[in-house]
Design brief:
- The protein is an alpha/beta fold.
- It is built from 14 helices and twelve strands.
- The protein has two domains: 31-181, Leucine Dehydrogenase, chain A, domain 1 (Rossmann fold), CATH 3.40.50; 184-338, 3-Layer(aba) Sandwich (Rossmann fold).
- A seven-stranded mixed beta sheet has the order 9-8-7-6-10-11-12. Strands 1-2-4-3-5 form a five-stranded mixed beta sheet.
- The model has no long low-confidence stretch (mean pLDDT 95).
- The structure holds nicotinamide-adenine-dinucleotide.
- Nicotinamide-adenine-dinucleotide is lined by residues 142-145, 187, 214-220, 238-240, 276, 290-292, 312-314, 339, 342.
- Residues 142-145, 187, 214-220, 238-240, 276, 290-292, 312-314, 339, 342 line the site of nicotinamide-adenine-dinucleotide.
- The record marks 143 as: Important for catalysis.
Length: 407
């Protein structure tokens, strides 16, 4: 079983090995500043008590308050949360926002509880970590299974416990509760900006311009929108129930309507049902993992035919798979660059909350566009300087920025 935290540390060592960093500095970054496991007793609708387990990991705050999502998922574990908090430190540094890295999660399936239970679980979690978080300490945001309504409850519970309204206690909230215009589409949109920049460098040659996306949730669906604007063809899509394929391109509007109606992508008329494994092995130009981590391993990486892997999910490629991709001359655009648009817009939301401002969607996406283009330019110049992979280049850039503040 792949341990995502061990993978994250390996990525750090690999990047540090090609640049000149003090080994003590690198070693220090392998340990989160702090992590907690909390138990959350919740009275369920049937009158019986259930105990849930939650985590929060605060990796590093050299650049600013810890910042990162909250994952509600049955298979969440501490190593995963520590790895995700680690990646947040680097991602925030790559996109150059004043935040450190944090992440949290609760072990359960949010689809299997009622809305009232979901609220009680969320508030119970915040009561247990209240003394560790706050707008200028650690600011939770959304992640898999935890959307805007949950972020509202987090902000509300934090405000209630602290005795004053604190909109900046969480990000990814609904608009009436201090959410930012543009946050929902931000991660996918930001990925679209990076993809456009990458393609403009002509790193891959393609006649067909084909893309497959694994995961059609928040990130996958907005990235798909951006790809459509680029004039590329999405030939395959998938969700947890399986995938669909159409060599002439999938009609996104029809796919969305079909998923809303049936709860799955499979069975979409005019397309062929395929498995998630088959999607990863398609003969296409760009493959986008946009679901969960550890998708590419030593077992399936040799079978990947795509020329470029564009990581919208966090940690989809194990170090073994990364090595195979490098050997096979695949270009990998790393998660800490590709999906950093989400946290960048969380920063915009936090900033608006603190300064009591409200920006339009146009203003937000315009600022995001500038930030993402700059992040790509910064990573690209290091990639050119060291003649290395985009992942190592992104790590080196982040390390330089963190080092400057830590020393
Ligand atoms: P989401 O819950 O909205 O969507 C996840 C999608 O993945 C769903 O369509 C689900 O059906 C699908 N999925 C789950 N298991 C799958 C499997 N085995 N095979 C194929 N599809 C599967 O979550 P999201 O917010 O879109 O996040 C997706 C990824 O992007 C995660 O790795 C997350 O950490 C990362 N991410 C999200 C954000 C954000 O702003 N939401 C920001 C940065 C990174």
């Amino acid at each position: 079983m792949n341990n995502p935290f061990e993978n994250a540390k390996k990525q750090l060592d690999l990047a540090a090995s090609i640049a000149q960093f003090d080994p003590n500095f690198i070693e220090r970054l392998k340990f989160p500043d702090r992590y907690v496991e909390v138990s959350i007793p919740v009275m369920m609708d049937n009158g019986e008590q259930e105990i849930f387990t939650g985590f929060r990991s605060q990796h590093n705050n050299a650049l600013g308050p810890y910042k990162g999502g909250t994952r509600y998922f049955e298979q969440v574990n501490l190593d995963e949360i520590r790895a995700l908090s680690f990646w947040m430190t680097f991602k925030n540094a790559v996109v150059n926002i004043p935040f450190g890295g944090g992440k949290g999660g609760i072990i359960f399936n949010p689809k299997k509880v009622s809305k009232a239970e979901l609220e009680r679980i969320t508030r119970g979690y915040i009561q247990k970590i209240f003394h560790l978080i706050g707008p200028e300490i650690d600011c939770p945001g959304p992640d898999v299974g935890a959307g805007s309504e949950i972020m509202d409850w987090i902000m509300d519970e934090y405000s209630r416990l602290s005795g004053k309204k604190q909109l900046a206690a969480s990000t990814g909230k609904t608009l009436p509760n201090g959410g930012s215009n543009g946050r929902e589409e931000a991660t996918g949109f930001g990925g679209g900006v990076i993809l456009r920049e990458v393609l403009s460098k002509n790193l891959i040659s393609s006649e067909r311009k084909t893309i497959a996306i694994q995961g059609f949730g928040n990130v996958g669906s907005y990235l798909a929108e951006s790809v459509r604007e680029l004039g590329w063809k999405i030939v395959a899509l998938s969700d947890s129930k399986g995938g669909i394929y159409n060599e002439n391109g999938i009609d996104l509007t029809k796919a969305e309507t079909h998923k809303k109606k049936t709860g799955a992508l499979r069975g979409l008329p005019d397309s062929k049902d395929i498995s998630n494994e088959e999607l990863l092995e398609l003969d296409i130009d760009v493959l986008v993992p946009a679901a969960l981590e550890n998708v590419f391993t030593a077992l399936n990486a040799p079978k990947v035919k795509a020329k470029m892997i564009f990581e919208m999910a966090n940690g989809p490629t194990t170090p073994e798979a990364d090595e195979i991709f490098n050997k096979n001359n695949k270009i990998v655009i790393p998660d800490i660059l590709a999906n950093s648009g989400g946290v960048a817009t969380s920063y915009f939301e936090w900033y608006q909350n603190i300064h009591n401002e409200k920006w339009t969607t146009g203003e937000v996406l315009d600022k995001l566009h500038k930030l993402m283009s700059q992040a790509f330019a910064d990573v690209y110049s290091i990639q050119q300087k060291y003649k290395t992979t985009f992942r190592k280049a992104a790590y080196i850039l982040a390390l330089e920025r963190i080092k400057e503040k830590m020393l």
